């Protein structure tokens, strides 16, 4: 029944926690729904539809009065639960005057919204991106506003073969594209594991390891449907036991991704590059963040070009290669979530 | 005008008599078209003579099953035509749905909730109870009925709420202690209510007197009861000199429109105040069933909301133009 490419009953990142502040409203569209975000005086975040109950004027262009939002057009005032508490020129308040509010929660440096059935919003289901705020890790990230469907970004991250071609020189080399990989899946998760053994490291990784000679390199993709990815990457001196679990002679990063559909053809893409070595070295944090930012700018260019080409070729379909196994499992998990949402609707009959 | 109007055919799937005079009617509807979350209502077109009238019913649903619309209809002995028609529906019959919306959406910002239902006002509260319990909220419900016969949803609510449900049966001498209830309400408690006008007005007044947060009192009104029994009355329109009779099964707004008077209206629930008419002189027979006018505006007895308010009988002359809006100061 639905043409949506994304499920609704899930937590989506709406922004970095520092983007939503007291005293100022942030307007952002999530799953095609314009939403306004702000914080109460006690710091807890609020998410409500960015349209006044009365004439649909965007509340984000109004002002905050304490914890309440005042519409810029006629001064209707809404409390954080969405109920109108002031109307102009009348002594009573229409009992039905409410704007929709959404469950919202801060976790792992991001702020997450549940855009679907609020009664099923379980804070325990916020995706695990603990590397973003784990004391044993450090790092920083950024945001891409991608003019492409969010699943194209998922495809991109579920198959790192593209590193050889899109990111040649930095993290990509011939060895990546030709190394075999293993794909496994369970419930709403997909893992893709690729080991590139006993090869010269590409430029970025050679510099991080700081030791000469060949390396064993790993790329382990942890996907949680619909669109969260934790990418476990690193290199260790070849033959020191990294594939068997001893990473002591290597360096490790966890690159996290929270990918949120803005519309069918645009995406909020929140990434962070974390590492667990030399964690007090802020310069290294900056080098990682800026290096990764350049890499993702290359992804952004190819994904937007891909979306443009898809729009220009509406009669054409995708074909799959074996390198697409991870992405295809991810898409199947997403499809199952969307189907489950409409099945729970059908069960009544 | 809000875009909650629609053009949809619903097919009766089944009817279940919950009590001798309360019937649940379930309709199959296309998935994803209607808002069926807790608190939502649906408006049906019902034939009336050569024309039609509209009747709105709260949904029993809680949004879990958007292909099935369930309502509960109490057969009124002096039926205004609506309940009698709804009771005539059989499985397979079709009915036209002309509007849908939610005037009492659930709110999840509190942790502590009280649901107060009187009689058939229980309908939206069943879905509300389920939704809130599903979210892990603490829910206490007070369900007031005249006779145990009327307690159509007692069993299902008992399953959902268990100890949280308090059933008060008037015929067994179980009265609602409203003052005690209101005194027990803290600043973080949200109260949802639906029931007879007298009950809801007492709660609204008590709420205001105690200075409880206005956003924590949620209610829905279809204004189908007032301070007086529903009787026929007469209205003269000052501008046209026409004298109209409003039958016990009609409302003033519909009669004005049907007789060719050009009047404003929107919500048809007594909320928005657009259909307010001015009496040429104060009239003490007005049965205010709206929630728009404030107590002081009501006390002046010189205006009424045509969509829901009536006279307890007798006659009134009203202006339909030159209406004074805004605060009465």
Question: Can you give a write-up of this model?
Answer:
The complex is a heterodimer of chains A (349) and B (329). Helix content of chain A is 22%, strand content 32%. Chain A is α+β, with helices and mostly antiparallel strands and 349 residues long. Chain A has 2 domains: 11-124, Rieske Iron-sulfur Protein; 129-340, Naphthalene 1,2-dioxygenase Alpha Subunit, Chain A, domain 1, CATH 3.90.380.10. Chain A has a 7-stranded antiparallel sheet. Chain A has a 4-stranded antiparallel sheet with strand order 5-6-7-8, with no helix packed on it. In chain A, helix 1 crosses helix 6 (325-346). Chain A starts with 10 loop residues before the first strand and ends with a helix. Chain B is an alpha/beta fold and 329 residues long. Chain B has a 6-stranded antiparallel sheet, with helices on one face. Chain B has a 5-stranded parallel sheet with strand order 9-8-7-10-11, with helices on both faces. A 5-stranded mixed sheet of chain B has the order 13-12-18-14-16, with helices on one face. In chain B, strand 8, helix 3 (154-161) and strand 9 form a beta-alpha-beta unit. Chain B is globular and about 60 Å long. Chains A and B meet through helix 6 of A and helix 2 of B.
Please summarize what this structure is.
The complex is a heterodimer of chains A (349) and B (329). Chain A has 349 residues and is an alpha+beta fold.
């Amino acid at each position: 029944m639905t043409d949506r490419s994304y499920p609704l009953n899930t937590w989506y990142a709406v922004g970095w926690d520092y983007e939503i502040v007291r005293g100022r409203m942030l307007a952002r569209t999530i799953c095609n729904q314009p939403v306004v975000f702000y914080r109460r005086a006690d710091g807890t975040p609020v998410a409500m539809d960015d349209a006044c109950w009365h004439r649909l004027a965007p509340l984000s262009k109004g002002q905050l009065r304490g914890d309440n939002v005042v519409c810029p057009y006629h001064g209707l005032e809404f409390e954080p639960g969405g109920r109108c508490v002031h109307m102009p020129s009348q002594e009573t308040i229409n009992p039905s005057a409410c704007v929709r509010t959404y469950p919202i929660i801060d976790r792992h440096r991001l702020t997450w919204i549940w855009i679907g059935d609020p009664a099923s919003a379980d804070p325990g289901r916020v995706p695990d991106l603990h590397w973003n705020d784990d004391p044993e890790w450090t790092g920083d990230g950024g945001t891409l506003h991608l003019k492409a469907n969010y699943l194209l970004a998922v495809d991109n991250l579920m198959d790192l073969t593209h590193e050889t071609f899109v990111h040649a020189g930095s993290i990509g080399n011939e060895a990546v594209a030709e190394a075999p990989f293993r794909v496994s899946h369970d419930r709403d998760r997909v893992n893709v594991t690729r080991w590139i053994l006993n090869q010269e490291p590409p430029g970025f990784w050679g510099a991080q390891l700081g030791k000469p000679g060949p390396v064993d390199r790993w790329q382990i993709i942890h996907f949680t449907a619909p669109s969260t990815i934790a990418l476990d990457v690193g290199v260790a001196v070849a033959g020191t036991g990294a594939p068997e679990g001893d990473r002591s002679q290597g360096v490790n990063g966890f690159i996290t991704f929270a990918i949120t559909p803005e519309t069918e053809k645009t995406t909020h893409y929140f990434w962070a590059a974390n590492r667990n070595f030399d964690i007090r070295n802020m310069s290294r944090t900056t080098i990682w963040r800026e290096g990764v930012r350049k890499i993702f700018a290359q992804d952004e260019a190819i994904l937007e070009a891909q979306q443009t080409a898809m729009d220009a070729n509406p009669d054409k379909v995708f074909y799959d290669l074996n390198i697409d196994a991870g992405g295809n499992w991810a898409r199947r998990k997403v499809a199952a979530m969307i189907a489950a949402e409409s099945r729970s609707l059908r069960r009544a009959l | 005008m809000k875009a909650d109007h629609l053009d949809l055919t619903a097919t009766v799937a089944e009817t279940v008599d919950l009590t001798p005079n309360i019937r649940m009617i379930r309709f199959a509807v296309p998935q994803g078209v209607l808002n069926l979350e807790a608190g939502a209502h649906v408006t049906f077109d019902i034939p009336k003579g050569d024309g039609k009238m509209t009747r709105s019913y709260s949904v029993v649903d809680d949004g879990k099953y958007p292909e099935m619309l369930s309502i509960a209809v109490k057969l009124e002995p002096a039926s205004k035509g609506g309940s009698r028609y709804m009771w005539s529906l059989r499985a397979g019959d079709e009915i036209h749905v002309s509007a849908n919306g939610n005037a009492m959406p659930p709110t999840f910002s509190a942790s502590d909730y009280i649901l107060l239902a009187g009689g058939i006002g229980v309908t939206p509260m069943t879905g509300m109870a389920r939704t809130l319990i599903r979210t892990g909220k603490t829910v206490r419900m007070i369900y007031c009925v005249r006779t145990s016969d009327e307690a159509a949803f007692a069993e299902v609510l008992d399953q959902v709420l268990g100890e949280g449900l308090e059933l008060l049966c008037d015929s067994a001498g179980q009265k609602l202690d409203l003052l005690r209830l209101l005194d027990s309400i803290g600043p973080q408690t949200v109260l949802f209510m639906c029931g007879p006008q007298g009950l809801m007005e007492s709660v609204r007044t008590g709420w205001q007197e105690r200075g409880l947060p206005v956003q924590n009192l949620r209610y829905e009104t279809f204004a189908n009861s007032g301070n007086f029994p529903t009787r026929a009355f007469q209205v003269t329109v000052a501008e046209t000199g026409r004298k109209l009779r409003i039958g016990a099964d009609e409302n003033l707004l519909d009669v004005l429109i049907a007789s060719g008077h050009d009047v404003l209206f929107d919500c048809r629930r007594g909320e928005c105040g657009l259909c307010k008419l001015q009496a040429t002189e104060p009239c003490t027979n007005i049965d205010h069933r709206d929630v728009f006018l404030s107590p002081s505006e009501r006390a002046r007895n010189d205006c009424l909301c045509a969509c829901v308010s009536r006279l307890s009988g007798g006659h009134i002359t009203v202006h339909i133009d030159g209406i004074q809006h805004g605060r009465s100061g």
